[in-house]
Every structure is written in structure tokens, then in C-alpha cells.
Amino acid sequence: MVQSFVSKNDSQEKQPSENNCGLELTLAYGGFPVVPPPQDDANHSKNVGHDQSNKHEGLDLGLGTLLLHLIPPSQPVHHLAPSLDTASLINAIGRDISITCLLRCPRTTYGSIASLNRSFRELIRSGEIYKLRHDNQVIEYWVYFSCHFAKWEAFDPSTKKWMNLPIIESDHCFQYYDKESVVVGTQLLLLGKDVMGHATYTYNLLTNSWTLGKKMIEPRCLFGSASLNHIAIFAGGMNQSEEIVDTVELYDSRSGNWEMLPRMIKPRKMCSGVYMDGKFYVIGGVGGGGISLTCGEEYDFDTKKWTEIPNMSPVDANGGWSAPPLVAVVDNELYAGDWGEMELKKYEKERKEWDVIGTLPERAHSVNGWGVGFTGCGNRIIIIGGPRKDDNSVVEIYSWIPSKGMPEWSLIGHKRCSNHNFVYNWVVMGC
Fold first, then answer.
1. pLDDT tens per residue, range 356-385
2. What is the distance between the alpha carbons of residues 411 and 20, in angstroms, rounded to a whole number?
3. Is pLDDT above 90 for 77?
4. Cα gap 245→157, rounded to integer Å
5. Higher-confidence residue: 101 or 303?
6. H-run or E-run covering 51
7. What domains does the chain contain, in order, with CATH numbers?
8. Residues 274/286, Cβ–Cβ less than 8 Å
């Protein structure tokens, strides 16, 4: 983690002035960790003081107690407000250093930061701070999860907190139709059908709102997809005429536009997509005539060509009855969940073979791969398990960090859902 610009010797506990009715920040010197300390309950969070801020050596940007003086505490707020330079953000240190501090604050605080004044709000909503976070390798990965037709929630694996997203304003057709979800940049895309046909709804993290976005050039479903930074690729699938296709499209979240890429070697649906070593891979799926495909294909962005890779699928697609391969990339290594054998596998690139390295959690049971989530989430693999036998309304989230050794799954979260059929979507956003 990048260290801050001040010294711990000046980190003294201070009491806010009785005359200062405004927001107050106290600089604490040291690193600015992405993860804030957990809060046991609402009453405790209201009483968080400087002793807690010293524990995480960063900026505790909540709306109650804010640390680093925006306004000198010895003078009333109404005397200084007219001359305050809000464009400087934190007035005492200027805009550039203010942003250097703020980009290291956890994303859970950004709603509070945006509430301080117009300049803070514009900084958050412009997306500038997320671009700087990416440039400085300050990235948080959240799991976006839905077990309701119109409700989505975000789960932070580090703090183990759940956050609600706004309700999707769509017609009933879109709400009840099967949907596929992809994250790209600071957007969450939901692709499905409404009364007018194929539709794409977009959640924008910057505005915390849903909008009806642009459709694909060739609308489809059952595609393989993956995202990298502000672009996402959608490969294959089944078009509106229910034909399996080999066409590929790229979506740019910055412009909101779609563009066609070169066609794959083989048409396929029910496939999976990943980014690895700077290239896009489509894995497995079902080809024409319901034939299971065990091969994969690699797309090189420099040559703009596809290369077929034999035996890249970790499981047999079973003629289209199985879910797309459960695959995930962590640190440019490819992992897979074999739902049939309940095994965890790793792909050896040089040998082009899969090795069994462990087992899946007991709760990762499924029906031909359906009903379980398996994805990369920063430096960890996340598994979302189906309903428990003793309580069919609970979904559990497991985590394993490959860099820490042999597979050992930890339960990091659970969610009680009202939809007992568990027709849920999940996806991971890193920004």
C-alpha cells in the first residue's frame, strides 16, 4: 500500500471545538488502508473517535466524526464559510493532496464524502477518483448479488458488509425473464428481455442509479463474457433466431458503445469467458447440433486473431444440459470448479492440462453446475453456495486466497433470501 505524506509524530488526539458546528478532519500519518475497521453496532459507530482512527492509520470519512480540519476549530463555521475554497476539497492541503488522501479511503465512505459539498460530489461522480485508484493500484473487489427479480446488493469480502442498490425501474417482463450480468468499469450490466425485446439495463456506481442502456449490435443470450478495466467482450451465444453464433462484440463503458470483433473459429453457446495474460479466452460450451465442445479459443488483441486450444474445458458440457464451465482467474492463473466430482482444478499452461489441487466446499453442490457461483475476486476465489439443507433460504459465500497455500475454504458471508427458488445472479466489480 502506498504510504501517506505525513509523520506519525503529529498524530495527536484532539478534541473538536465547541464553537465549530461544521465537519472536522484530523490528519493521521501513515498508510491509508482500503478496508475500514468493522463496527459492531450502530451505537458504537456513532461514538467512533480518534482512538479508532489511529488503529487503521487513515481517514475515517463518515458523516459523524471526520478527521483533518476543513475549518479551523477555534472559529465558528458561519464566519469562515463565505471565504472557504471548496474547489480545494480539503482546504488546508489543496486539491491534489486531498485527492491523494481520498483515493485511498474505502469505497463504503464515498457516499459520505460526496455529501460534504458540491466539489466532493463532483469528484466522486466524475469517475476521476476511480481512474486514479486504478492508476495507483488501489482497487476493491465487491460481489454484486441478487436473489430477487428487481433487487441487487453489494457484498464487500474484506469488511463482510452488505449494501443495497436502488430498485431497477423496469417492466415485469424484464424482471421475470432470465438475465445475464456482467461488470465493466464502474457499471453493472443486466442483459435480458422486456416487452420490446432484448434490453440492457445499466447500474452506474458513480450516480448510484439504473438506466436503460444501448443494445448489442447482435442481441443474444447464453454467451461467454469477461471484462478488463473499462471494456468487456461478449462471445458466441444464441441470437434472436435461436441460432448458435460465432460473433463477438466489445462494449466500452466509457463511451457506452458496442463494436464487432473478428468471429471465433467455432460457433458456441453456454461457454465461459476469462481474461488471462492480456488475452481473452472463451472456454467450452455447446456447438452446432448440441455437440459438447472441450476446446477453448484465445483472442490476441494485437494480431486480432483467434487460436483454438484443445482440451481447455475442465468439464464436459453434457450436450447443453450443464451450466457453462465454472472458471476463475487469479494472478493470471486459471482455476475451475468441477461440479461433478466436487474438485478444484488448476490449469497448467505449458502442458495444457488440468490438475486437481483440492476439493470444493460442501455447500457448492449443484444441479449440473447450476445454482453455484465460482469467480475470481481480486486475489481470492469466491464460491457462492446454494441453499442449506437445514435452511433453504440461506446462501453462503466461501473464499480461498491461492497465494496463501493449499485450498482451505473460509465462510466469509451468508445471505437470507426471500426467493426460495434461488434464481439469482452474481458478479464481481473491482474499482
1. 999 999 877 777 788 889 999 999 999 998
2. 45
3. no
4. 36
5. 303
6. helix 50-56
7. 8-135 (no CATH), 141-430 (2.120.10.80)
8. no
